[in-house]
Each structure stands twice: as C-alpha cells, then as structure tokens.
C-alpha cells in the first residue's frame, strides 16, 4: 500500500460561535503510528474527523501527501476510517461487509472476491466470512471493520477510539493486533484515544490536546519524562507537583518548597519555575532522614501486587510514592512518620 505523510497547517474549526480547533500545526511522517491523546472535549476526535472530511469545513490546510484535502469530499481523500461503533451492516455477512467499499468503487467481481479473502486473512477471520455481525464477538467485529477499511487500500488509516467498547483484557490483545497490522501494512495511522496506556503502547509519537490546542508532541517516553507543562505532566501518568521556587547561587540550584524544604537540582542552576514534577517511582520512602529528603506522614497505603503505593503528606501537599514489593519487605503503616528521598535527576521544573 502507498504511504503518505500528513501536514496540518494553522487549522481552525468552529461549531457555531464555539472554536473547537485553535490553530493546530502538525507533521506526521509516512508510515508513522501517531496518536491523538486528550480528555473528552479536547478536540482530538474533531481533528481526526477533519482529516477524514466529516463535519464543518475548517480553515487552514490539511496536506495528505502533496495534496490539500480541505474542501474535498471524504471519498475523494483516499483515507480509511474505523469508527468506535465499528458501523457494520447488520443485514450483511462478514464477506459482504468487507466487500462493500470495493463494490462502491465499481471493481469487478473477479477482483473483489480475492481482495475480500485477503483482507479477512490479514485479520485472521477468513473462516468466519459467512457469519453475520451479531454472531461475532466485539473483538471480531472490530477486525471486520479493519478488514473492510484496509481492502480499499487507503493511504491513511484513521482509528476513532476503536477499542473503547471492548473489555479490559480484550483491549490489551486488540491494541497489539492493531500495531501488528499497522507494521505489516506500513500504513500511516492516526489513533484517537483518551487512554494514555493505549497511546503509550502503540504510538511512535503522540500529540496531547486540550481545549483545541496541541500541548506537546513527541514520543511517549519524551512526553512522560519531559512534559512541557503541568497539563501534560498530570495527564500522562501520576505526577507529584510541588509548589515553590528555584534558588540559585555559586554552589548550584535548589528548589524551595512552599513549606521551606530544599531539594537540590543537579545540573539545574539555570532552571526556572514555580513547580517541580516528581514521578512516584523517583521517590523512595524511608525511616531515616537523608539528602534531598522531605519529612512527612503516611496517609494511605495500597497493595498493587508488584508494588506498594503510599500517599504521604509532605512538602505542603500529598505525594504518591511507589515502592517495589518483595516477599518479607517491611511496609510502612498508616500514620508512620517517614522521609521521602527525591531523585531530582529525573525531576522537571515548570
């Protein structure tokens, strides 16, 4: 299949007086698995539908390959879209559902038959070609929707929260299948989700949206380790955010919390900001005071199997700390006075 990149330039879109997309700029590489991630109402599905050609016409440019598709009808853009509901025809067999787009393109029957079976084999459902949609599981229906889309040989595959109707264990299985299929076909793919785990485990890069604005673009690791702002820090995983200020002198830089505690910032003399972000795994909980430590009290404890999660009052806020669990390891009781040692090598000042 042909691969095409997508370039979006200064895209604006409104529903009546409400501006939903506010100057979006984005460059997606050919063959990339890209995710739009954000809370409900952030504009991620609207952006996806704008690429597909559904909804109001936006202002700006959407380049698919070397062609600006703004203003083109959806069927002239050569994109394939899989919807959250799968949108299968209930009165048609699996075979006929997959063949539908090919028949709409007036392909000869001698071509349609082999292409349909090729698509079903790709998703592992050739043996169910004569079943009806109501005879399939949710995961199987999703695979039929994928097969129906990819047999039309789109240059771009658009996935609008396709896993949200599946149970938790099946979602894990199907996101692996999605990634396997995408890698096999080499299709430029955009995956819309509000689930950070889905975005982290599938995408090469992602864009985090809020309020119709892209907050940050990068790999899952880049966005988790180096969030550009507090919204991204909070949205991607658990983030401990301490308020205060950076102080610098000839000996280096330190972060003074709102309660007066000091945390050294290695290599961060020029850091500036009023918040420090620490992930739970970058804080250790201990009984004795040490360097770069905050004094606190355990408020709550949860056993999560591979780790123990503590909620500790310290530094003027409530801090989440993850400690790996092993048999025989002592736990800290609720109410215990503890010290939190922060690994500020991995901290972010915002």
TrEMBL record:
This is ABC transporter ATP-binding protein. The lineage of its organism: Bacteria, Pseudomonadati, Pseudomonadota, Alphaproteobacteria, Rhodobacterales. Residues 6-236 form the ABC transporter domain. Keywords: ATP-binding, Nucleotide-binding, Transport. It comes from Paracoccus mangrovi. Signal peptide: none annotated. GO terms for molecular function: ATP binding. It comes from the Bacteria.
